[in-house]
Amino acid sequence: MQTQKIISWNVASVRARLPALLQLLEQGNPDVVLLQEIKAEESTFPFFDLKIAGYNAVIAGQKSYNGVAILSKEKLTNVQSILLPNEENPQARFIQAETESGITVISVYVPNGNPPEKDPTDKTKLMYKLKWMKALNEHVKKLLDEQKAFVLGGDFNVIERDSDVYNPEVYRQNALMLPEVRSLYNDLLSLDVVNAIRLKNPEPHTYSFWDFQMNAFAKDWGMLLDALFVAKKDEAKIVNAGIYKNVRGWDKTSDHAPIFIELSKDI
């Protein structure tokens, strides 16, 4: 069976994680990689290193913050990086491209939404998160209406279920778990899409993120924040999906573990 592997990873700075990223490319041999929180602009993104490793790259970059990218063995075309048009101060959180095989691949870094520590009553970031999630849901509806074959992956910054975090009571008032945030995420789930990570890993307490603080990884104090979606019509193509938890234990790695999906080319 011929398959295509797509990895999604919040790298928490592509330059700081470049050795780990190159190791992941060598060991995992993905066809496509969706990156989040690259924290780099065009001038500082490691295009050359990735080209040597066999990957073309397109990015929506931002200095020191945010940023998303797509890496592909095939050439990428029809690149889009605007989800919210006419933003005054656009944040680099969305990028979409098409592979030569005809699959639309999308990398997203959903806003966190929590207020600044100096003003816990400030809901500006939460309002932006809700607006952003609504726009993403509308975009996915459009892709479904167009019958596009797509893979949408990234850091969604939502704890969907209480069993997706080591201690839900700690995060009950956090923007990762607020009812209005979960409601919009459920709106996405109610579309004709399938979260491959959930489908192939239904057991509770399956995590993709462990904080750098409090020795969280060793204690398995994690949460599931990352997902990979395909259209429900393509569910039969999902051969496998999962989380490379071992990568979280590598030296100088991200606080997120990479997630992956393998799709059959034969169906």
Describe this structure in words.
With 267 residues, the protein is of the alpha+beta class. It has six helices and 14 strands. Strand 3 and strand 4 (68-72) form a beta hairpin. The longest helix is centred in the middle third of the chain and has 22 residues, at 124-145.
What does the oligomeric state look like here?
Answer: single chain
**Biggest β-sheet description:** 6 strands, mixed
Q: Could you tell me how far the N terminus lies from the C terminus, measured between alpha carbons in angstroms? A: 10 Å
The helical percent reads 10-25%
The SSE string, one letter per element, is: EHEHEEEEEHEHEHEHEEEE
Cross-sheet strand order for the largest sheet: 3-4-2-1-14-13
Short description:
Helix content is 22%, strand content 27%. The chain contains 6 helices and 14 strands.
Task: List the defining traits of the structure above.
single chain; 267 residues; alpha+beta; 6-stranded mixed β-sheet; 14 strands; globular
Topology:
Layout: E1 3-10, H1 18-28, E2 32-36, H2 47-52, E3 56-60, E4 68-72, E5 76-80, E6 94-99, E7 104-109, H3 124-145, E8 150-155, H4 179-189, E9 193-195, H5 196-200, E10 209-210, H6 216-219, E11 222-223, E12 226-231, E13 238-243, E14 259-264
